[in-house]
Amino acid sequence: MSIKVALFGPEEMVKLVKKLERYVEGIEIIPYVYKAPRETEQLIREATYCDVYLFSGIIPYYYCKKFFHLFDRPSIYVVDNELSVSLTLLSLLYGQQASINRLSIDLPDRKYVDSVVKQLNMMPEALYIQDYPWMIENVDKDFQVTDILARHRDLWNRGKVDLIITSIHAVSDQLKQENIPCIQMVEPERNIIEALKEAKMLGELQQSQQAQVAIGLVKLESSTEKKTNSHIYQRLMSVAKQINCTLQQSTSDFFVLYGTKGSMEFLVKNMDFLHSLYEDVEKQEQTVSIGLGFGLTIVEAERNAHIALNYSEKQEAENTIHIVTEEQTVINPQKKSPTVSVLKSENEAVVQLAKELKMSVTNVIKMAQFVASRPMNRFTASDVSEYFEVSKRSAERLLKKFLEAGYLHIIGEEQPFQNGRPRSIYRLDLPFQ
User: Is the pTM of this model over 0.85?
Assistant: First the structure.
């Protein structure tokens, strides 16, 4: 079965990629054409049946980055690099369109221009470059194509440049409408083919991961005497069929689901399948605890399922579900902040910091996840309390360890209530982030 690759790009780029599709066997490109990069924010919602998302450049990729967690698909983009710059400058010099001293260029990172210019011993007196390397790491800063366009236009109007080289199709289209000399950065075929090969590899990896072994354990708890659970069994059988799993009843109150990671993740994404089960259980004055385990083997999946079930059972008098992945991450899909804890860490820096702070690896990782989940690295003890689902006093004790070790800094204070005590505002700088 071929890997379906959703391709997001302007019409000209989509045509070029489609032409090169024949060089990579086993893929099918599904084009999503846009006129402006920000349109991908809507187009990506139409491509949920595809295996991989491929963007024509870093800008449309950047606009969609904040949505990737919703679709759980590998996502990559066609890169611009030294080869792009070299081929563009070569075509420029061959056509004698302009002097390198009178160019205005935009591209993701100016280091590619600097590298080519240095290696070719070019010494331009003036070279106007706009770049945006922060896109790789920063998802909070707003990017406006109009700002790039305005800078190019200003340089042209002031007579500073004779030609604009742009890596943004929308900029090229607009400048040409204004009769301002402009050429598109050359897209090397090699870069596109490499991106298609990577898309295929990621798609195959995604499919293999979806086929991993998964086991679900379902346990009923009754506040009264044990009841007959035949109706519950029928309800679970219905759920199993909907997600293409096999169900076995071990005891009157214990059931086992056998399936794949893909089938269990389908269940988690469609929690409505469980609502009828929860209703039936509550009618019999019972609660249900569910643990899903993923693994490369049945033994590993079953072990992780038991760990997940143990987490669910700790929440007494509630219908709960937890997941333990093959990476030993514990997830509660019913919570807004899904990652609950990590059972192990292969990151030596994390382990060392946990030892230094005399704290569990889980809490160190959760603290790192907390900071990463926020738009800005600034927060209060109340924010930590809410994220960790602990009392404010417990959150303050946790923060105190980071403060005493020098990783936590007080950067201000706020007074949310007129007569209340001011609250400290913190910033956390971890050595491995």
Answer: no
